[in-house]
């Protein structure tokens, strides 16, 4: 696996500015946001590389045979093209790789996590005119075609296999132990997809304390999304302290405590104590 090194401060700031602008656009572009996440992780990804990835998605869509008909016809066409002919699918080992969460690398390797493979499916299908959207099942992202009454679900991680009702129920039960709720089958908002990708990256980094740099940029990108959990500010503060930036981390903890104080006084006091402890590390 090629080692991934982040870009320098100036380039990183530019990618973040563009990520924030795209996230606040009237209709955020999912592929552009995913590629900007990749640019934050991979200092070798430049403007030409971003363009090349978009061109590859266009090319894959152009190779898709025209299939008039309903959602199942689209699902079958995508599975035959992306899964069978092009070899896009996942393996258990992909969960251990950072590049499995980076769109440009998934396009190159044709391997990735379920959610990134689903992004490939959605972006190729969308370009071809399919009625496609992401479906954020707990623990396993999939792709849907067609309206609710005709919905066809496919699993890009399994090469685009069409899922039956029991298949989807098993995926949810395996992840949560709970039954499938119809609300889980609703189309996922693009920004929610990006936040879930960034959460996966943070989970990867959390298992590797030496890569706290990855966890930090992932949480900072998450904070650029118009809607995000308030706790991300606390997570960023903790990462700053862990990385030795005690003063900035303490300031962030104090700011988060002010937000929390309005709803949970004891929790705010605990955060303030953490801020004092971080400042004490400066002595």
Describe the structure.
- This protein is mainly α.
- It contains twelve helices and four strands, in the order ααααααββββαααααα.
- Strands 1-2-3-4 form a four-stranded antiparallel β-sheet.
- Strand 3 (about 150-155) and strand 4 form a beta hairpin.
- Helix 9 (about 210-225) packs antiparallel against helix 10 (about 230-240).
- The radius of gyration is 20 Å and the shape is globular.
Assembly type of the shown chains? single chain
Mean pLDDT: 93
Number of helices: 12
Major sheet details = 4 strands, antiparallel
Percent of residues in beta strands? 5-15%
Please describe the topology of this protein.
Layout: H1 9-23, H2 30-41, H3 47-62, H4 71-85, H5 103-109, H6 114-128, E1 132-135, E2 142-145, E3 152-155, E4 161-163, H7 165-176, H8 190-206, H9 212-223, H10 231-242, H11 246-261, H12 265-280
Antiparallel strand pairs: 1-2, 2-3, 3-4
């Amino acid at each position: 696996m090629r080692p991934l090194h982040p870009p320098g401060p100036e380039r990183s700031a530019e990618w973040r500015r563009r990520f924030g602008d795209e996230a606040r656009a009237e209709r955020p572009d999912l592929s552009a946001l995913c590629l900007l996440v990749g640019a934050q992780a991979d200092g070798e990804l430049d403007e030409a590389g971003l363009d090349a990835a978009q061109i590859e998605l266009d090319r894959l869509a152009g190779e898709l045979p025209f299939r008039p008909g309903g959602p199942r016809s689209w699902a079958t066409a995508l599975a035959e093209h992306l899964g069978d002919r092009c070899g896009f699918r996942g393996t258990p080992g992909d969960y251990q790789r950072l590049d499995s969460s980076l769109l440009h690398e998934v396009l190159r390797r044709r391997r990735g996590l379920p959610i990134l493979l689903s992004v490939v499916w959605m972006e190729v299908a969308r370009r071809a005119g399919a009625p496609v959207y992401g479906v954020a099942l707990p623990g396993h992202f999939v792709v849907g075609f067609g309206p609710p009454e005709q919905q066809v679900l496919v699993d890009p991680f399994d090469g685009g296999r069409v899922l039956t009702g029991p298949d989807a129920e098993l995926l949810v039960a395996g992840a949560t132990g709970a039954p499938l709720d119809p609300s889980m089958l609703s189309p996922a908002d693009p920004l929610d997809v990006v936040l879930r990708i960034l959460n996966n990256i943070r989970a990867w980094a959390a298992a590797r304390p030496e890569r706290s740099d990855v966890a930090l940029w992932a949480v900072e990108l998450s904070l650029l999304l118009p809607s995000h959990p308030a706790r991300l500010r606390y997570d960023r503060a903790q990462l700053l302290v862990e990385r030795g930036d005690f003063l900035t981390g303490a300031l962030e903890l104090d700011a988060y405590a002010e937000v929390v104080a309005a709803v949970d006084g004891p929790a705010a006091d605990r955060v303030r104590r953490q801020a004092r402890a971080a400042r004490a590390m400066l002595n």
